[in-house]
Amino acid sequence: MKAQERPEDLGTFEAERDAYTDALTAWAQRQADALLSAADAKAEDGPPDFYGLWAASSPERQAQLAALMQGYGFRLAQIGAWDVLGVWNPDADGWDPVVMEAWLVKAAASHAAEYEQAAYTAATSAVTDEGDWRGNLRTGLEHWVTAAAVRAVTSATEARSFGSHDAAGASGLTHKVWRLAGKNPRASHVRLNGDAVELGGVFANGLRWPGDANGDADETANCHCGLDYTREGG
Fold first, then answer.
1. Which of 144, 131, 151, 125 is nearest to 33 (CA)?
2. 3-state class of 102 per DSSP?
3. Closest residue by Cα to residue 164 from 212, 221, 112
4. Which residues face 196 on adjacent strands?
5. What share of the chain is helix, strand, coil (3-state, %, to 5)?
6. Which helix (H) or strand (E) covers residue 197, if one does?
7. Is the dihedral of CA 97, 102, 103, 106 positive or negative?
8. Closest CA to 209 of 152, 151, 158
9. Could you give the CA distance from residue 68 to residue 51 in angstroms, rounded to a whole number?
10. Domain segments of the chain: what residues?
11. What pairs with residue 105 in β-bridges?
């Protein structure tokens, strides 16, 4: 049987992360522009029904967004996996990328639901906040679009971390080591740099890996950290 190889079309983590960021930001901008246009068209003496304009089509939009996130997440997870496999298990014995898909589907659906809810909150807040609802809506959606970049970076880090963790388990590695990265790291992550825990354990900040969606945004948002791995006994 031929050994598995790293897909030739996979770029570097930085290139794939940036492509994901651009795609998610562009998608969010299109949704924001469509809502603003629809709101202007429906408004007469006051703000329109934002449920009808936005939330009624939420399932379709979330499915579209989740598919986008899952596609990029799978590529980023493979990058993380091959970073480990290339060092510890070049033939990828015992590892199959398909095994990662179920987890990545669930993660993408969760991220999509959270991001979708943030847009609806921005829309409904436009009605209740003081001032002109149109200006409030435009400002709220501008912040929502800007937040796409942070969500992309965070979920990219999560996907890479998950992929590396999955490959480490399949390769018989026993411990993971937090590695600091990024230009402006959190103080808590500086303290974690070099800390090692068992593969199935959590670090001192409660995370399984950098970007872990089980953690608070204070520990995960815009994180660039990564993981190394070791095998007990050498």
1. 144
2. helix
3. 212
4. 177
5. 65, 5, 30
6. strand 196-198
7. positive
8. 158
9. 24
10. 13-230
11. none
Q: How many CB atoms lie within 10 A of CB 73?
A: 27
Q: Which residues contact 210 (CB under 8 A, 6 or more apart)?
A: 157, 158, 161, 178, 189, 220, 223, 224, 225, 226, 227
Q: How far apart are CA 172 and CA 179, in angstroms?
A: 20
Q: What is the DSSP letter of 98?
A: G
Q: Which of 175, 154, 206 is nearest to 24 (CA)?
A: 154
Nearest CA to 104 among 158, 167, 175? 158
- Tokens matching residue 76: 């980023």
What is the 3 state secondary structure string of 32-73?
Answer: HHHHHHHHHHHCCCCCCCHHHHCHHHHHHHHHHHHHHHHHHH
The three-point CA angle 31-33-38 to 5° equals 95
Q: Quick check: 181 and 153 in contact, CB under 8 A?
A: no
Q: Which residue has the tokens 């639901």?
A: 113
Q: How many CB atoms lie within 10 A of CB 26?
A: 11
pLDDT tens-place values along the chain, 234 residues long:
457 899 999 999 999 999 999 999 999 999 999 999 988 887 777 788 888 888 888 999 999 999 999 999 999 999 999 999 999 999 999 999 999 999 999 999 999 999 999 988 888 888 888 888 888 889 999 999 999 999 999 999 999 999 999 999 999 999 999 999 988 899 999 999 999 999 999 999 999 999 999 999 999 999 999 999 999 865
Rg of the chain, C-alpha, whole Å: 20
Distance separating alpha carbons of residues 141 and 154, to the nearest angstrom: 20
DSSP 212: -
pTM of the model: 0.93
